[in-house]
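As a representative case, the lines below give one protein's residues and fold tokens.
***
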Amino acid sequence: MEMNTNRVNQTPTQQDVHDLSPKPPPQPPPEENNTKFVLHSDKDPYDYISQRCTAKPTNTLESTGHLIKGCLGGGILGIHEAYMKCGLWSSLFITIVFGFYITYCVHILVKSAQTLYKRLHLPEMSYPDVAEASLEVGPFPRLRKYSKFFRYAVDAIICIDLFGACCVYQIIIAKTIQQLVESKDDVAWEDIDRLRLYVLALLLPILLLCMITTLKYLAPFTLLADVFIIACVIATVVYSLRVAPKISEVPAWKDALGFFEFCGIVVFSMEGIGVSLPIENNMKDPKQFPKVLCAGMSVVVSFLIIVGFFGYWGFGENSISPVTLNFPSAIFPTILKCLMAIMIFITFALNFWAPFNLVWFYLSKKHDPKRHWLWERVYRAVFIVAITSIAIAFPNIGNLMGLLGAFCLSNMGFIFPALIELLVIWEVPGLGRYKWRLWKNVFVIIVGILLFVAGTYSNLKGLISNI
């Protein structure tokens, strides 16, 4: 039986988009047919690296840069509010712990994928591919019929996470515009009804922007966005130190509810599980990915700690998200706020493209190909209206990021990678002495479930309380 290469290969147009996008988008699933993944004997060696046909492979340094860009997004602009919910020193410690934990979970996912490359004689696979294949060729025959469901679950969570990030971006833009227009030093929750009007006013501009289906005109702006994020990190330290109280006066710990809210936000802010396999698939030497992962996540965690620690220490209990709104009303910070709002507005379309491209793959099958041009734009409009409606209903950046982190990334970042590794290593090399590999992954899954339940509850409660 021959393997259907459409399962993992992309068209040239899709690959070009991968080169341009700030976050490599999830690869669309193949046309559904009766072709299955095929296991090959271990005696039949397969060099997946030599079989890859990547037009522009990236070296270790370039891949590290892509990973940093893929992990750092709008979440860094709200991480200081997460520190405010949990406490200064406890948040610092937990950020470091999650940095190691998330790095390890990305590692086991990529390691499992590379094992499947050799077993299935495939040069590359996406996250949904790996999820489906792990069940389809796994050690439990009764579970194989659920392999497609596992794939669709990964697809759905990727879409929810990225569409949710679009809601966060829209609120960030609206809050920035509100502060600039109303010439206020802060945006209090008493102004929430006016904030909703600003979010609504952004509907038409964002709708028109997201009708652009070719990203080559927007992708160069992602480089500027990276520059502005670095500028925000530096500015946060400078402006916070000007007004920071004695560090002994800042609470080190708050309460359990704030702790779980914090966990959701910090996971949302640094999780890179969705971009890990696309980056690995495009590497010149994929075996160097562990180095890329360690270097990239070190930078990501360091940036988050700087903004979170100094943002909360300096701006205190009245700090708001995004962090730029806490800066003084001088010329430079005002210009920085304007430029950040513009960059986030432009990158909104880039962030929207990835999940919509995946959804459109399924929706397009329901319509006549001759009318795809029309229906694609209709669905784009529907999704933008839905995103705007959610942003209007829940204009709380902190709890919205926390909910996305707890609901989506606890599954996609922790539970699913642990399940996939168990399926891949169950028979070869086995569970190890005293079944340590089993207990290790059970621990990862339990932590993921705890974050899912407690984090989702606490952040959803916070969102509802601000309706």
Observations:
- The CA atoms of residues 364 and 373 lie 10 Å apart.
- DSSP finds 17 helices and no strands in the chain.
